[in-house]
């Protein structure tokens, strides 16, 4: 009898364990399991916090990776140095254009390159750490821009027939008060530098970097200014077909380079938990067991929850050049965010992703890293900054570089 009880208990335990395992499988099987294909070295995850400075964080992270590749040295470059110079330049442009160039927190990868070329750079600890001048532990631009924006707009929209240059002195005071004054000289690892001698010491050739985009309202293999507000310096980008843009990213990563990426992260498929998938909403709706009538009655949050629940089984659109153009022209693709592409991975279904370093701190499932599918990147890239030596030779030849 005792043996029968023991056998019975073991059977119950085994059944329970099997049920738990089956339940676990049913819960977890849609969760991505990533296999790294290629991963290039990056510097530490940063946190832009409540500041619209993704362009500075992502692009300085890009140049930190470039330095790491070329010299093996790790640097922490100063985002607030770039922001201080860039906001002054943007204010001057806005005033020069009587307010027809917007003044805002955003920027582009080119702003950082321009700063390095014209003003230099300093290490993070050569200026006050972000937020510390106003009692915060990270950057928080709420009060800063509440004070600065009306100041700049008042000058830009002035009805005076002639303005003085005194406004620049006042604006520089605001910038220095919130961001810190940019140093004229500083010491790093026992050596005295100016910002320009420091940038010259980093081992970079600042003529190596080019901007790439892909839209068909301008001829391919030409250059044009990508028409978004935060591209206010009006630099030229090389216009290549979508397939070649993707070849550039793949080749760069596979050759040990990273890519400074700018694009749209407002799509439902870009989750706050570390994934970017170009949902095919029509197919996904069907897979979620929701017909069209019911789907349209759901709130935006309910729709997103159903889509996200599909995990790696979520169907994706296959982007085309025409789809990219339409989404750009009808404002579906927006210029929201900058990040750093540094690797390639696949999930358990074989879908390919780019490994992307974000600047939201160690946030999300992957502690500050996002996995954006190649379809998402093909569809939602606005532009990117890349070392010209990372571009396939046949594409470089067509670009004329």
- Derived from helix and strand composition plus strand pairing, the structural class reads alpha+beta
H/E series: HEHHHHHEEHEEEHEEHHHHEEEHEH
Largest sheet: 10 strands, mixed
Q: Give me the number of helical elements.
A: 14
Mean pLDDT: 92
Judging from the principal axes of the Cα atoms, what is the shape?
A: globular
First-last Cα distance: 86 Å
Structure commentary:
- It is a single chain.
- By secondary structure, the protein is of the alpha+beta class.
- The chain is 41% helix and 14% strand.
- It is built from 14 helices and twelve strands.
- The chain has helices spanning 2-28, 54-71, 79-96, 109-118, 142-156, 166-179, 195-200, 242-254, 281-287, 292-297, 300-308, 321-329, 374-380, 393-399; strands at residues 35-39, 186-188, 191-193, 209-213, 223-224, 237-239, 259-263, 275-276, 337-346, 352-357, 369-373, 381-387.
- The strands form two sheets. Strands 1, 4, 5, 6, 7, 8, 9, 10, 11 and 12 form a ten-stranded mixed sheet that branches. The protein has a two-stranded antiparallel sheet with strand order 2-3.
- The longest helix has 27 residues, at 2-28.
- The radius of gyration is 25 Å and the shape is globular.
């Amino acid at each position: 009898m005792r043996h029968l009880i023991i056998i019975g208990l073991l059977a119950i335990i085994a059944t329970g364990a099997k049920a738990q395992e089956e339940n676990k499988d049913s819960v977890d099987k849609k969760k991505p399991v990533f296999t790294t294909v290629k991963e290039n070295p990056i510097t530490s995850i940063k946190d832009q916090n409540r500041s619209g400075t993704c362009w500075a964080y992502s692009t300085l992270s890009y140049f930190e990776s470039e330095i790491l590749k070329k010299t093996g040295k790790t640097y922490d470059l100063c985002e607030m140095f770039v922001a201080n110079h860039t906001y002054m330049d943007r204010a001057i442009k806005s005033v020069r254009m009587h307010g027809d160039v917007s003044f805002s927190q955003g920027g582009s990868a080119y702003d950082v390159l321009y700063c390095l070329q014209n003003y230099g750079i300093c290490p993070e600890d050569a200026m006050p750490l972000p937020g510390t001048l106003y009692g915060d532990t990270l950057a928080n631009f709420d009060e800063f821009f509440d004070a600065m924006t009306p100041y700049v707009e008042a000058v830009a929209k002035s009805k005076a027939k002639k303005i003085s240059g005194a406004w620049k002195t006042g604006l520089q005071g605001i910038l220095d008060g919130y961001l810190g004054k940019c140093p004229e000289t500083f010491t790093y690892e026992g050596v005295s530098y100016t910002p320009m001698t420091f940038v010259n010491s980093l081992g970079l050739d600042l003529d190596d970097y080019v901007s790439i985009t892909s839209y068909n309202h301008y001829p391919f293999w030409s250059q044009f200014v990508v028409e978004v507000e935060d591209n206010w310096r009006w630099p030229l980008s090389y216009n290549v077909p979508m397939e070649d843009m993707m070849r550039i990213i793949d080749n760069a990563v596979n050759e040990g380079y990273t890519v400074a990426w700018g694009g749209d992260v407002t799509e439902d498929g870009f989750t706050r938990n570390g994934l970017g998938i170009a949902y095919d909403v029509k197919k996904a709706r069907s897979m979620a067991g929701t017909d069209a009538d019911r789907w349209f009655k759901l709130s935006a949050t309910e729709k997103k929850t159903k889509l996200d629940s599909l995990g790696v089984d979520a169907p994706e659109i296959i982007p085309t050049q025409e789809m990219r153009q339409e989404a750009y022209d009808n404002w579906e693709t927006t210029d929201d965010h900058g990040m750093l592409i540094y690797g390639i991975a696949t999930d358990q279904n074989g879908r390919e992703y780019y490994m992307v370093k974000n600047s939201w701190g160690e946030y999300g499932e992957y502690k500050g890293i996002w996995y954006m599918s190649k379809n998402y990147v093909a569809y939602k890239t606005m532009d990117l900054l890349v070392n010209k030596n990372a571009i396939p030779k046949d594409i470089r030849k067509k670009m004329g570089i």
